[in-house]
Amino acid sequence: MNNELARWSRGLRRSSQLLGVAIFIFLYAPLALLAAYSFSGSRSLTFPIQSFTLSWYVSLANNTELLNSVFNSISVAAGVVPLTILLGVPAGYALNRFAFTGSGIVDHVFTLPLMIPGIITGLSILLLLKSFGIGLSLWAVVLGHTVAWLPVVIGQVAARLRRMDRYIEEASLDLGAGYIETFLRVTLPNLKGAIIGSALLVFTLSFDEVAITFLLTGTENTLPMQIWAMLRRGVTPEICAVATLTVAMSGILIAVGVRAGKD
Questions:
Q1: Are residues 124 and 179 in the same domain?
Q2: Is 125 found in the same domain as 18?
Q3: Which of 44, 110, 250, 259 is the most exposed place for a label (fewest CB within 10 A)?
Q4: Domain check: are 79 and 206 in the same one?
């Protein structure tokens, strides 16, 4: 009986390992192929790849439209990050530290932008801007991304506050510090990891956002919109090179953000 159970256990372990490998391949094989095509010596994407070159990456440095779109994406993300931090940190702190009527409902309402499709969020903000006579621009995109990714900061801050020992804050208050001084000198330093982590995540999400940007941008393209425009002429190794660099940058920022959020 014990031998039979051991065989079943080994079989289940092997099946789980094979399933894990299969899922990993399913998720990341397309990205690996994308990266491989970015080094293809031929402009037509054929497999197997006959030759390899770095010329597509070199040509990116000479593409003025692409470089401008990268600058626009960085500018938008750089505007979104401080806005989400300035709004999200106090909101997360208030929801976690102060009990008030309807706080549970407010907490769930703050998570709605993460559940609502980006196209709906973008359309709602578009209609709001139209009603105030505000035109489409990168500033409108910043507003849209701030609404969409504010819950990321609130969630990260609230999670860190739940792990934080509240007796530290109570000790500060008992020693004569006020609520503001306690927040600035005790609570905020303990939120550093969550703030840095959420800032990096928000930067990455804003940099890669398509749906909201599509509805709110004017004549200035961000990088995802520029890639979309380039795809109209067909998929080329140059597009694969842009996408590979974007995936690499996003992966690094997300990894650093997740790691910082655990501190």
A1: yes
A2: no
A3: 44
A4: yes
pTM of structure: 0.79
DSSP lists the bridge partners of residue 40 as 52
- Reduced to 3 states (helix: H, G, I; strand: E, B; else coil), residue 184 is helix
Q: Which amino acid is at 37?
A: Y
Domain total of the chain: 2
Q: Does residue 154 sit in the same domain as residue 233?
A: yes
Contacts for 80 with CB less than 8 Å, ≥ 6 apart: 142, 145, 146, 149, 202, 203, 206
Secondary structure string (H, E, C) spanning 90-144:
HHHHHHHHCCCCCHHHHHHHHCHHHHCCHHHHHHHHHHHHHHCCCCCCHHHHHHH
- Residue 234 and residue 242 in contact, taking contact as beta carbons nearer than 8 Å: no
Residue 36 forms part of a structural domain: no
Residue 262's pLDDT is what? 61
User: Could you report the per-residue pLDDT of 88-144, keeping only the tens digit for each?
Assistant: 988 888 887 776 666 667 777 777 777 888 888 888 888 888 888 888 888 889 998
